[in-house]
Amino acid sequence: MTGADILKLRKKRGILAWSLVLALAPILIYFVVAVIQHASNPSQHGPAGGVQNFSDGMRVIALFFGPLAALLIGVEAGTGDASAGVFRDLVVTGRSRLALFATRVPAALAVTVAMMLCAYALLLIGTFAFASGLPTPSGTLILNGLGFTLLSTGILCVVGVGFASLTASKPAAIIAVIAWHIVASPILASIKSLGSSREVLLSQALAHFSPVHVGEGGHGATVVLSTGTAVLVLLAWAAVFLALGAWRTSTMDA
Amino acid sequence: MSSTINDPGPAVETTGLTKRFGSRAAIDSVDLQVPRGSAFGFLGPNGAGKTTMIRMLLGLTHASAGTMSVLGHPVPSERSEALARVGAIVEEPRFHPQLTGRENLRIVAAARGPETRERIAGALRRVGLSERADEKVKKYSLGMRQRLGVARCLLADPLLLILDEPTNGLDPGGIQEFREMIRAMVEQEGRTVFISSHLLDEVEKICDHAAIVDRGKILMQGAIAELAEGSAHHELIVGVDDPVRALDVLAASDSVLQAQRSDEGLRVVLGEVPGASDAESAAAVNAALVGAGLAVSRLEPVRQSLEKRFLEVTSRLSDSTTEEVLS
């Protein structure tokens, strides 16, 4: 059944195109601009590749545009059947609703991972192609960066599937998650008076695993939290939204 | 345990089935029996509760009270087993528009199980969509989507098909093909087909059993012929050489409740004579006329249509009529 859900996502050309644009275009633009700057004024602007540009590019795909692309895919997976009006036709096959929900998650993750691998490959190509003698990232950093990118986008994808299944509304799910994750979370993380309660923020738990610096705290997070706490926070976010999505899928009138 | 065509018992059975939306009962204590191997019409005006009934049978919405079973399995407790051999179209058939007809069937086949995928080609062939199966569904007409919906039902190799207003969007040729397909499924393959419709003529032509539903209640159910006859008085069209004298003769007959002239001849409503069948009452009418020296050229029973019966018993005619039938 996961194959069927992947087929649905694969043939949703509009969503796929926008997700690809979000995943690839920023990296492409980043390198194009950096190459032009370096070519026009080498003394002011260094080569477009190398470790530093790799780190900047990874922040772009792992923390901002990649999650957006993953969110689009996750939300489409969560609402596709209901919005096309075919959810009831799947229910009348006798297949359990939980199973129908459960297959959305690996399908959305598969498409997201494929897309992020493309984006990451583009980042690596730029990093090495435009290094011009600058040090390039080590194998460990490359692997850590890939893991972080997939973790960051994967979690957002899963949250997107769960939340969209809960709301059964694409716009509501997209707007709410973007507003929370991209806008509200960084603001809340920066409010120091909130203290340790900021540890429950998904963005902070994710940033903990960043192999490159993204904030004030250890491991790149604005808020300092232990690895165990970060893992628990990530699992809790995924579990809560999956549970809500599964509950709604199981109980809604089809 | 899976169902087979030869299993005894009704294909669908409900007892006291009720669905409430707030204080309004969309389905009100319905007792329904759909015989196996029949084409069963679920007739009712718009808003009568037909789709709500189907949605409950398919586990798409919960019942407020009562029990139901599909192919011998109680629903919702054994919903998966019940629906394994059920194909259904609820309201208009919907599909992923970005996928082709064949891909849409693959999606459902994946949900039903790997063995189902082998039935896709046959199902498409049966509904006449083989040549256009690889076009995107967004290019399909409503009639084509209806046919694809039937193909989707066939993937289950269904013992029971539940079709909600299935001829919507079909052209006359398509309706005829559909009718023949349903009859073949029932007569040659022994499947049960449950058709919800407000099109009386369609149900009369396709189905052999029906229930008439209005305002969430079953008003009548049984074989189509019995429903059409119902409790209404039987009528005859009588052709005689002297209609005026014939009316006098008929007025004196115990077998006749009412007689009047019409364009076709005399329209005679037979009275209920204890111990006499309709045929015997008609013979008595003929004997009275012939005995009075009148030449009888025509003696034809008026066929009661389901439409007339439907209008008699549903609220469309009058509330008082409905109450009379219910009582």
The strand count of chain B comes to 14
Main sheet characteristics of chain B:
6 strands, mixed
CATH topology of the largest domain in chain B: Rossmann fold
CATH superfamily of the largest domain in chain B: P-loop containing nucleotide triphosphate hydrolases
Spatial separation of the terminal alpha carbons of chain A: 19 Å
Biggest β-sheet of chain A, characterized?
A: none
Element order of chain B: H for helix, E for strand: EEEHEEHEHHHEHEHEEHEHEEHEHH
> How many helical elements of chain A?
10
By oligomeric state, this entry counts as heterodimer
Shape type of chain B: elongated
**Could you list the spans of chain B in which at least 5 consecutive residues all have pLDDT below 50?**
317-327
Structural class by secondary-structure content of chain B: alpha/beta
Account of the 3D structure:
The complex is a heterodimer of chains A (254) and B (327). In chain A, 75% of the residues lie in helices and 0% in strands. By secondary structure, chain A is mainly alpha-helical. Chain A has one domain (2-251). In chain A, helix 1 (2-10) crosses helix 6. The longest helix of chain A has 35 residues, at 50-84. Chain A starts with a helix and ends with a helix. The model of chain A has no long low-confidence stretch (mean pLDDT 91). Helix content of chain B is 35%, strand content 27%. A six-stranded mixed sheet of chain B has the order 6-7-8-3-9-10, sandwiched between helices. In chain B, strands 2-1-4-5 form a four-stranded antiparallel sheet. With 327 residues, chain B is an alpha/beta fold. The radius of gyration of chain B is 24 Å and the shape is elongated. In chain B, a hairpin with a 2-residue loop joins strand 4 (65-70) and strand 5. Chain B has two domains: 12-229, P-loop containing nucleotide triphosphate hydrolases (Rossmann fold, 3-Layer(aba) Sandwich); 235-301, 2-Layer Sandwich (Alpha-Beta Plaits). Classes of the chains: A mainly alpha (254), B alpha/beta (327). Chain A binds chain B through residues 1, 3-4, 7-8, 11-13, 80, 84-86, 88-96, 100, 253-254, and chain B through 55, 58-61, 79-84, 86, 88, 90, 93-99, 103-104, 106-108, 110-112, 152, 156.
